[in-house]
Model the fold of this input.
Amino acid sequence: MPSSNLIRGNAIVANEWTCVTLPPPAEETVRKQAGKVVLFKLTGEVSATPEQIAATQIPASGKVLVPLSVWLARKQELAGRLDKGELGVWLDTHELIESLVEGEADLNDFPLIGVHVERCADGRIFSIATLLRTRYGYNNELRAFGDVLRDQLFFLKRCGFDSFLIRADRSAEEALASLKDFSAPYQGAVDDQLPIWRRINRNAL
Done:
């Protein structure tokens, strides 16, 4: 296994960013519906308490990737880090992109935005990336991390992600190879808006 599990572009590279996480809540609540445990948080659900946000420890130096809730609540404290280009923000799939957009006039002030997926079956990560790249015009590094599977990387890239932090118990080399699973996607997407039939020069056939 390589020393780094970060894929950027077509290579495994060193990770310069420290991902800051919220401290665990005082007590975990298990939600059930029809007798079954609810695994996914609802879109827009508030999951960080003021106590967690205030207690979040942020390294005093270096590049840091902070939770969206921390950025919104502690923006004045962190503004200088953003000005230096050493602060990025990450959000969970259940958090609203609108909260990020309303909290920062120009998303491209962030050199890095991360999207965390708690469980691989949560498809909201694809929609979030597409909206950030298209509707909201984000042009800098967009990173997927968390429970990201090898088989998803090619499609995450098509939605606009250009870096992937693979879990420590998985192979970054195998994940990197997955980006070449398909040579010519049929549909248009964020990475290439033209469908294949528009990309083919039929006069050359």
